[in-house]
Amino acid sequence: MLSEKIAGLRRREGWSQEELAERLGVSRQSVSKWESGAAQPDIERVVALSDTFGVSTDYLLRDGVGEAEAELPAPEVIRHAQEEEKGLAGLRLVTMAEVSRYLENRRQCAPLIALGVGMCAACPAPLMALLGLYGQACWPWMGKRLAVALGVGLLIVTVAAAVGLFISIGFRMKRYTYLERDRYTMPDAVKASIEDELKQYQPQHRQAVGEGVGLCLLSVVPVSVAGILGLRLWVMLGVAALLVMIALGAYILVRDRVILNSGTRLLRRAERSLKWALRRGSKD
User: Fold this and answer.
1) Residues contacting residue 220 through CB under 8 Å, at least 6 positions apart
2) Of 192, 186, 189, 190, nearest to 92 (Cα)?
3) Residue 74 DSSP class
4) Which of 45, 51, 135, 160 has a CA-to-CA distance to 72 between 20 and 30 Å?
5) Strand pairing category for 184-185 and 92-93
6) Which of 262, 271, 264 minimizes the C-alpha distance to 103?
7) Strand, coil or helix: what is 21?
8) CB contact burial 146-171 (16+ within 10 A = b; e otherwise)
9) Element of type H or E holding 154
10) How many CA atoms are closer than 13 Å to the CA of 15, on its beta-carbon side?
11) What sign does the CA torsion over 63, 52, 100, 37 have?
12) Cβ atoms 198, 263 nearer than 8 A
């Protein structure tokens, strides 16, 4: 039965239900239900289980087919055993499926993280604009107190929305915290795949840096023009425009940095873990 196979393969790897859940990007309760037979994984999870355990989907889904396959160590398990012989025991092995899911989620979260940062940078802009508009002929009903109250209210709402974004992103990425916290190694093929993606992203990275830095540098133009005019309205609107342009530049730069750092961080973490394991092995 599928439930027995999942439980047996997990015990073969020496993983807890929580560790297997982290690798698959599901909850521990889901793994528990699969192993007890109370629920069945969907086809996407079956494929992920196949990749994680190094067995075929036929073995998982069909009784009496390929049973010997489970007794044979997957290539990743063989590599892990070889690394243990070299003194690299204690490192968890990260598979291609885990890395792909992590990087895809980081790419999806990058615009949201950048949006939150941009909102924080631009939140005083409405207050500046309203302070410039009050008392103008086109806004006869706008007094100073009303302008301040509306501006501060919009500032608080914007910051609260940004904080909400950050919290939701934190919950979404929580399942992948082990990739940023634990010591692990990964097959050479996985490392090569990450490096290839980083190389392919370089043109977009250069373009993003140019656009982001350019917007930040150009943001002083509205303030300079407003300073020449010397009117309170234009000065305040110039400051508001400066904040908005800086926020747009920050959005572009932060989104780019999150995407770029995702793969780089995995490679660096694996490299540091490898050095740690080698030092510990030499001491032993």
Assistant:
1) 242
2) 186
3) P
4) 45
5) parallel
6) 262
7) helix
8) ebeeebeebbeebeeebeebeeebee
9) helix 144-173
10) 23
11) positive
12) yes
| 3-state DSSP helix/strand/coil % of the chain, to nearest 5 | 80, 0, 20
A 10 A CB-CB count for 61 gives 14
For residues 31 and 41, what is the distance between their CA atoms, to the nearest angstrom? 9
When computed from its CA atoms, the radius of gyration of the chain, rounded to whole angstroms, is 27
Specify the pTM. 0.68
Place of tokens 């916290």: 181
The H or E element that residue 93 is part of is: strand 92-93
pLDDT in tens, 118-171: 999 999 999 998 888 776 656 667 778 888 899 999 999 999 999 999 999 999
Residue count of the chain: 284
Q: Is 3 exposed, middle or buried (0-12, 13-18, 19+ CB in 10 A)?
A: middle
- Which residues on adjacent β-strands are paired with residue 185? 93
pLDDT digits (tens, 9 = 90+) for 61-99: 776 655 444 444 444 444 444 444 344 556 777 888 888
Distance CA 6, CA 120 (A): 46
Residue 263 and residue 96 in contact, taking contact as beta carbons nearer than 8 Å: no
Q: Which amino acid is at 251?
A: Y
Residues 191-229: tens digit of each pLDDT: 888 998 899 999 999 999 999 999 999 999 988 888 887
Q: What distance in Å separates the CA atoms of residue 54 and residue 150, rounded to the nearest whole number?
A: 59
- Can you list the pairs that 167-174 forms with residues at least 24 positions away whose Cβ atoms lie under 8 Å? 168/112, 169/109, 169/112, 169/113, 169/116, 172/105, 172/109, 173/105, 173/106, 173/109
